[in-house]
């Protein structure tokens, strides 16, 4: 996620809001909408993960493990979000960006990345397979904590590729 955050920061640092909010010619999300989507999705996992880690550390003997393996749902999510998977997927309604991205949305997402990285540090050494949570998109989808953290990283990579394509399209149309 650090590489994605660095890319987002350096790429958008000097761009005017009009570029960040312009949608690509194919009608996908603007850069601002992508960052809003990432804020929403990462944010919906933050509190449940924080609560899981706190509860685990409060146990008399926290479960510890260096190994993490994904659940079936985790494997499916990681496959569907993998940047090499060219198949388009529609974000569930709970993960859709609103009509307008929040002000300074790139900065908001960069702050969210730092909070997610802090969660990774909190999780260090804990058994990520033992701690379970439901997906905010569908309560029936049960993930382990490692799934949620891995999905956040892969999801960011996928969307930074989308940001790259969108900026190339928007820039070409502005210059042409």
Number of helical segments? Answer: 6
Strand order of the largest sheet: 1-2
Could you report the average pLDDT, rounded to the nearest whole number?
94
Care to count the β-strands? 2
> What series of H and E elements makes up the topology?
HHHHHEEH
Indicate the structural class.
mainly alpha
pLDDT below 50 for ≥5 consecutive residues: which ranges?
A: none
Work out the radius of gyration.
Answer: 17 Å
Shape: elongated
Largest sheet: 2 strands, antiparallel
Q: What is the number of domains?
A: 1
The helicity comes to 55-70%
Strand content: under 5%
N- and C-termini, Cα separation = 33 Å
Question: Brief overview, please?
Answer:
By secondary structure, the chain is mainly alpha-helical. It contains six helices and two strands; from the N terminus they run H-H-H-H-H-E-E-H.
Describe the structure.
- This protein is mostly helical.
- The chain has one domain (2-11, 30-168).
- Helices cover 59% and strands 3% of the residues.
- It has six helices and two strands; from the N terminus they run αααααββα.
- Strands 1-2 form a two-stranded antiparallel ribbon.
- Strand 1 and strand 2 form a beta hairpin.
- Helix 1 packs antiparallel against helix 5 (105-123), helix 3 (31-58) runs parallel beside helix 5 and helix 4 runs parallel beside helix 6 (145-175).
- The chain is elongated.
- The chain starts with a helix and ends with a helix.
- The model has no long low-confidence stretch (mean pLDDT 94).
């Amino acid at each position: 996620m650090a590489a994605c955050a660095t890319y987002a920061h350096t790429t958008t640092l000097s761009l005017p809001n009009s570029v960040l909010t312009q949608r690509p010619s194919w009608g996908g999300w603007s850069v601002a909408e992508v960052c809003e989507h990432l804020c929403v999705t990462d944010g919906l996992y933050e509190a449940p993960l924080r609560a899981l880690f706190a509860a685990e550390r409060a146990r008399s003997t926290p479960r510890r493990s260096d190994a993490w393996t994904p659940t079936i749902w985790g494997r499916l999510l990681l496959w569907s979000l993998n940047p090499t998977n060219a198949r388009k997927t529609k974000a569930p309604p709970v993960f859709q960006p609103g009509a307008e991205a929040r002000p300074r949305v790139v900065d908001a997402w960069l702050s969210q990345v730092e909070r997610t990285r802090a969660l990774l540090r909190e999780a260090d050494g804990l058994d990520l397979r033992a701690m379970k949570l439901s997906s905010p998109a569908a309560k029936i989808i049960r993930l382990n904590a490692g799934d949620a953290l891995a999905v956040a990283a892969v999801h960011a990579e996928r969307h930074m590729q989308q940001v790259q394509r969108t900026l190339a399209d928007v820039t070409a149309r502005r210059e042409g």
